Amino acid sequence: MNDVDGGLDEAPGGVGAGAGPSTGEHARAGGAPGGEAQEVLHRVFGYDAFRGSQQEIVEHVIGGGDAVVLMPTGGGKSLCYQIPSLVRPGTGVVVSPLIALMQDQVDALRAVGVRAGFLNSTQDLEERRLVEAEFLAGELDLLYLAPERLRVEQTLGLLDRGKISLFAIDEAHCVAQWGHDFRPDYLALSMLHERWPEVPRIALTATATEATHTEITSRLRMEQARHFVASFDRPNIQYRIAAKSEPKKQLLELLRTEHAGDAGIVYCLSRASVEKTAQFLVQNGIDAVPYHAGLDAQVRARHQSRFLREDGLVVVATIAFGMGIDKPDVRFVAHLDLPKSVEGYYQETGRAGRDGLPSTAWLAYGLQDVVQQRKMIDGSEGDEAHRRRLAAHLDAMLALCETVECRRVRLLAYFGQESTPCGNCDTCLAPPQSWDGTVPAQKLLSTVVRLQRERGQKFGTGQIVDILMGRKTAKVIQFDHDALSVFGIGADLREADWRGVVRQLLAQRLLAVEGDYGTLVLTEASGEVLRGGRQVLMRREPEKPARAARAKAAKGKRAPVDLPAEAMPVFEALRAWRGQTAKEQGVPAYVIFHDATLREIATARPAGIAELGAVNGVGENKLAKYGEAILEVLADGPSAAEASTEGASTGRASAETASAEGPAGNGWAGGSQASGSRANSGRPNGGRPGSGSGAAASGRAATGAAGRPAAPEPDADWDWDMEEPPPEEDREGAYG
Ligand SMILES: Nc1ncnc2c1ncn2[C@@H]1O[C@H](COP(=O)(O)OP(=O)(O)OP(=O)(O)O)[C@@H](O)[C@H]1O
Ligand SMILES: [Mg+2]
Ligand SMILES: [Zn+2]
């Protein structure tokens, strides 16, 4: 059954960088106007219906109009230019900064019969020549280009000699100069309109703040374009922001209890923490690789490719990873450090759950994040206006972290969209309360004032908290701080509570940090609090927040594998076939078919080719290529399943298949536990999270409370484990 039929010698993966049309037949639409877009969607891509505003956008561009499209990460922007490129005469030219992904994008298009190619610096002259020839011969539906190509007169001349159906400017926020992904070459794209005024342009981005939107429109000279702003909600993603105590341990706990064997991305701020975290996960039996700009390009490419091709790999990365990656089954995105902006956070978390199945966005956030980021801004290059902008971004991110309201309502409001509490974020699942923290705030602020006024001293959080709590540490005695009138006035709160107070005062700008040691100083607004003229509301962490959220999440998580019992072995058989096929073609498994499509096939069990063609995700080309093979799997399935259940160890799926397809891919034995099998299967070195670097780090942190180490330099490879050391009894929740 694993003998896939001969159609596979037309493997799209075998077609190099646009080296010639693969099959001769291709996907271009016939001629009839009207329902053409719909027809292409159905026939080529195999989808039943357009999503949201896709249809409107597609028709507008087919009609020759310019469009600015704002749609969330994973929302389906690609079809908005791919379908018009197929319908309009000529080649759709796609400008994209994602060079490392062009091969995969082209492979995926070729897999559905679209004639696609790319031109970028990874190709040699010969490969480029081939693509250019195809373009000139009118044999390309889509041509992907890196933006820097368009600064070369030679490329412009080439485009002049061919026929262009449209320009798509993907990841258009790269034109925004103060954005997190600014690419200078994007600025030059305003010339497209001058040089080719007749060719419609469509700019697309998942970054949707008013400021970015305006900047895209003006810099690309798209004032005349129609604007399409989709809903930014990604309802299948569960947003959670947890109090950071020992981030690596917390992460491990999350992966073990909720995402065993799942693919996911873990974001860290520094390269060093990326390396350490990846190592920590590997030591604890999780399949993880690092990814950051300091790694060799080849290593990066290899890790990205593994992430795309394998099931269940975790990539620990700086923000340099993930943009435009169309891996549908990323089940979680975790942040171990505070993102610098809500836009960045939303784009990164949006990489989870593109297939619409339940996914988790989890962020660990604590005092040190605020200290660190404020310091980074103070030390950043650029003028005052630039720093103010960075600070505004951070403030919005902090407000999201400290809110007692629905996270999603907050997020969507940030993008100017109204909504009601979602029921699928941590604050909805385990509502935190707000409490009046005015008195503790006054106590803390007056300690800072007294140290400064009476002693001419400034100290960091650790010493201030020790004074408040009346701890006679060596450092307190050394500085005679037990003689201060504020000594011990805060004994009613615990250390974690005080750190929460500091964090929230910093977040609300009622307190500030200064210098290399992160010393605390007052702000202009502090006086009002001290004088009793301002109430300070604080967030009280819910008791056992994680658990409440987790119970629900765990239930939700069953959904992806929640197939009728009899469909399960068929699904597994299909996955095994897919893994084998993908491997032979050298493409990611989802390029063959998404899980969702296999699931539908397993449930519906189509009896013939026509019925199979009606399944969502099965287009004309894939039907022709894989139809017979799938029907064979379906015919074999049940009996083969029984045979294999008896002898699971000799299951049909080869070892290679299993590794390409992940834990659930190894034959029929997996059943509904399949997705959990990897990490639970008792790996070597699968020690408790308490062992290894986590414990070492907390040991260090405990001493840190008394003699806090200097906060590291902004861009240095700092270690977040040094901070946030709540005493043992505080683990359950700061105010429990
Ligand atoms: N109408 C549709 N029906 C079913 N699936 C769809 C539809 N439109 C898009 N998809 C799927 O949704 C996924 C995300 O699409 P796409 O890659 O275009 O997202 P995007 O908006 O470009 O996201 P990003 O901002 O991350 O680049 C893809 O796997 C795609 O196949
Ligand atoms: Mg995209
Ligand atoms: Zn909510």
From TrEMBL:
It is an enzyme of class 5 (isomerase). Belongs to the helicase family. RecQ subfamily. This is DNA helicase RecQ. Pfam families: DEAD (PF00270), Helicase_C (PF00271), HRDC (PF00570), RecQ_Zn_bind (PF16124), RQC (PF09382). It comes from the Bacteria. GO terms for molecular function: helicase activity. Residues 58-226 form the Helicase ATP-binding domain. PROSITE patterns: HELICASE_ATP_BIND_1, HELICASE_CTER, HRDC. Residues 247-398 form the Helicase C-terminal domain. Its cofactor is Zn(2+); Mg(2+). It comes from Streptomyces olivaceiscleroticus. Residues 684-693 have a biased composition (Gly residues). InterPro entries: DEAD/DEAH_box_helicase_dom, DNA_helicase_ATP-dep_RecQ, DNA_helicase_ATP-dep_RecQ_bac, Helicase_ATP-bd, Helicase_C-like, HRDC-like_sf, HRDC_dom, HRDC_dom_sf. Residues 714-736 have a biased composition (Acidic residues). Coiled coil: none annotated. It catalyses: Couples ATP hydrolysis with the unwinding of duplex DNA by translocating in the 3'-5' direction. Its EC number is 5.6.2.4. Residues 1-34, 641-736 are annotated as: Disordered. Residues 641-651, 694-710 have a biased composition (Low complexity). Residues 564-644 form the HRDC domain. Keywords: ATP-binding, DNA damage, DNA recombination, DNA repair, DNA-binding, Helicase, Hydrolase, Isomerase, Metal-binding, Nucleotide-binding, Zinc.
